[in-house]
Amino acid sequence: MPFRSGFVALIGRPNVGKSTLLNQLVGQKVAITSPVAQTTRNRLRAILTTPEAQLVLLDTPGIHKPHHLLGERLVQSARGAIGEVDVVLLLVDGSQPAGRGDAFIVELLRHGRVPVHVALNKSDRVGADAEDLAATYREMLSAAGERAGHWPLHRCSALHGEGCTALVQALAADLPPGPMLYPADVISDQPEQLLLAELIREQVLSHTREEVPHSVAVRIERIVEDEEAAGGRERTAVLATVLVERSSQKGILIGKGGQMLRAIGRGARLQMQKVFDGPVYLELFVKVVPNWRRHPGRLAELGYRGD
Asked: CATH top-level class for 4-173?
């Protein structure tokens, strides 16, 4: 059997578990996760290498109806990935019946030429009704035309890993023969600054509610290796700015006596120490930038170009 390699796009509605599946497949955390919809804002690339194949996995923002320019850019990014890969994996919430959002994405995909696989995620949440739920997706695919009706369905649990080995094997079988695109020990090619910014944003998502998570962006200002700190042991110093749209959101993020910002920083710093395999000093600032999600220049500055 020839070695296979290529790109696989993870496509789906917000909050169906794409980032959780990505982390499960590569065995390490390369994408942030949270219960908040639209957590993923960038097309992250993770690399999964097996003895038979190398899969470059693109975790895309959830496809949804956008309400501002940032949302439009995120949907453009996800839709753009469809035409740039060798295989598409449509991830759906298999614990719920097929819905209009899923049908909308199927309509986008059925006109493409690349192989499409459908993964019914959250199999750990279904019981005796598993087959009835799966039938709603088969009916949806059949209604979309002959091509979609032949897309293979896979059951899996991104959280616990059930079905993931068989899913990887099926995806790999549809990749073209080719050499490794990355060294075998590489699991992600995302820039270090993006990873650190996402780790901070993940803590914001886990500590705040309501309107704050969607109004937040993080910009890494500086990364410095400090060899004189921590008792002679090299320490990494990270300076970052958290952007919000309103003064009230800034107050929530800072919290009474700075407690909220300290909690966010503490959680992010613990994750960063795993990245750098050593001590980290993290300094956070909060800055109000009104309507940054609707400003093309601000979005471009933060890397949200929709390409």
From this structure: alpha beta
**CA neighbor of 168 nearest in space, from 14, 60, 56, 12:** 56
Retrieve residue 74's tokens: 């995120």
Q: Does residue 121 have a pLDDT over 90? A: yes
Q: How many CA atoms lie within 13 A of 149 on its CB side?
A: 6
CA dihedral 3, 170, 185, 196 (to 10 degrees): 140
Q: Can you tell me the distance from the alpha carbon of 212 to that of 273, in angstroms, rounded to the nearest whole number?
A: 26
What does residue 287 show for φ and ψ, rounded to 5 degrees? -130, 135
Greatest alpha-carbon span in the chain: 66
Question: Does position 77 have pLDDT exceeding 70, yes or no?
Answer: no
The residue type of 80 is G
pLDDT at position 151: 97
- The whole-angstrom separation of Cα 112 and Cα 105 is 12
- Cα-Cα-Cα-Cα dihedral of 81, 59, 152, 28, to 10°? 150
Are residues 273 and 279 in contact, defined by beta-carbon separation less than 8 angstroms?
A: yes
136-156 mean pLDDT: 95
- The CATH code for residues 192-301 is 3.30.300.20
| Number of continuous H segments (helices) and E segments (strands) in the chain | 10, 9
Q: Mention every residue, 6+ apart, whose C-beta is less than 8 A from residue 242.
A: 200, 204, 216, 217, 218, 253, 264, 284, 285, 286, 287
Q: How confident is the model at residue 189 (pLDDT cuts 50, 70, 90)?
A: confident
User: Which residue ranges make up each domain of the chain?
Assistant: 4-173, 192-301
